[in-house]
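Help wanted!
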Amino acid sequence: MERETIEKARAGDMGAFEAIYREHAGMVFGVALRIVGRVEDAEEVVQDVFVSVHRSLGHFQGKSSFKTWVYRIAVNMSLNILRRGRLARQSELRMPEGAEFEDGRNTFEDRLAVEEREVRVSELLELLSPDQRACMALRVSAGLSYEEIAQTLNVNINTVRTRLRRAREVLLKARAQRR
Amino acid sequence: MDCRKAEELILSDYVDGELKGELLRVLEEHLHSCPACQALASQTVDLGQAVFGGAVSNPPERVWLAVRERISVGRSSLVERAQSWLILFFGEPRRVAFSVTLAMAVVVAGLFLPGMWHRPVAKNKDVVTTELMLASAGAFLADDDDTWADGLEYLL
Ligand SMILES: [Zn+2]
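Answered by r_m:
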């Protein structure tokens, strides 16, 4: 994200802020979705994140990258919603209907296959701790490096490494048991 | 390199492209001669992609409209404002909740306790009010399930 755009948005230019939103909203949505597991919740996270980003632009000092800064807010808000949601309903996780797997396949069989996959994905997601989900989402969905994940989550690189390894062990084990 | 060490590297640095130099060379050598580790590497990548990968879709347009609405109307409540500031500076919800409660307790004590010396008649009422406020502020902290945002909302 260009400094100039950030400066303009900071000065109240709504067009510049919209450009920031358009550039980052998809990735924030993707990461949030993998952490909270429900489309409605992920949409709420995106909304809260960008209202918060707008309000806090004046405090962004450029010490971390803008991307890392936005992701940090996104992860914190996602974890928050996840905790709140777990309380309300004993975590009935659902992956998106259509949103993620919309690929033009419309026959009943295709639809069924997509739904089966969604259920499988949510079941696997649910096996992971929120921290593991956050790490995997930042790594696989957002494509951040270990260094960037460590900065985003404010933990050291070895913690990132361990969380990713544990998450994958859990996923591999679950898949092996299913077979 | 033995399979145990190889597995450890495969499950993190290798599939994430973080492995460099000599270690990468040694691991790749192992992979060439070990079908089991080779299979593990491809399974790990596939499974990660299946659960966390896939196309990135943008959120529906109504999300942007809602963001714009909230910004322009300036509907941001005091709680929302405090929430985003705190998340920005501290990150950790529970730690923030504790600090906020402590700060509130100090403010409340500062407001009510001095009054006790000059207004003996109102003494009991003030003490009760202070105690009640402190107790209720602590209540949400003691309850591990409450989020700090709920706590904040409650306090403010
Ligand atoms: Zn091997």
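OP: Thanks! One thing I noticed: Chain A is about 75% helix and 0% strand.
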